[in-house]
Amino acid sequence: MNLEALAAAWAPRLLSALRIMSGLLFLQHGTAKYLKIPALPMFAKVEPLSLSGVAGMLELAGGVLLILGLFTRCAAFVLSGLMAFAYFLAHAPRGFFPIANAGELAVLYCFVFLYIAAAGPGPWSLDAARRK
User: Taking the complete model, does pTM exceed 0.90, yes or no?
Assistant: First the structure.
């Protein structure tokens, strides 16, 4: 088997791995805000109806949906929009370059989620199991 065939065979599985790991990393933002795990001073007092509070709810729910691969395209699209909104609201006013305004993670999440919304959940997902 050549390298191209090997890559083609593994691409769907790696898409699932990307979705799962992105969901796990993203979920931490929601758990820090609402479950205080990990306890971070910047999220000590998050009001549920504040922008940060609504983002935390989306991070919790969306992170779980991505991990499970359930309603993946919709969840990833919403989370991509959330990250675009977060970038332009919280980071872009601090400067043009993401490295200078601490927005590179928001940009990266935005485009990873946009890719997942377009590519789908991959084979290791509840969405794939439901299709069978």
Answer: yes
